[in-house]
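User: My instructor asked us to take a sequence, write out its structure as tokens, and then describe one feature of it. I'm not sure where to start. Here is the sequence I was given:
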Amino acid sequence: MTTTNLIIQPRIEEIAARLRELRTRKRLTLLDVERLTKGAIGSVVLGSYERGARALSVKKIIQLATFYEVPVDELISGHKNSRTPLEAKSTIDFQKARKRGESDLDIAVLAHFLTGLAHLRGDWNGQIISIRESDLRIIALICRQEIGYVRQWLSIEGLLIK
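Assistant: Let's start with the prediction itself. The structure tokens for your sequence are:
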């Protein structure tokens, strides 16, 4: 087996489907994209990219990734880049999570996870708990959501301090 057999390249159809999915996720029509980019990305051309009927240049891939606010490698491969340059930390109001967990099942699951995390780390401040980016990834897996959604949810629920 050669090393080239171990590399799986994305198919044109997959990239085309990702382009369409990125656009529809933002609830944009082809004409909306053309209008928002002031014609830099034409609706007819974008439709051709999304059908896989037209070749994408590197310049256009970068332009589309920038417009959709995703890394180029995610646009091409479909894999989310979960690496962070530094292990960023956030702080959660642990006491509030436990109290709110008495009446909210989702927050109860979060509070249970945070309690286990505190046990593992021997962190018994009891008021707040620092969580790492990797902890947020685990919470996202538990919630079956993207990490950005989890961060937003924690903030909306008033649990994320920083």
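For the description part of your assignment, you could build on this observation: The first helix runs from residue 12 to 25. Try explaining in your own words what that tells you about the chain.
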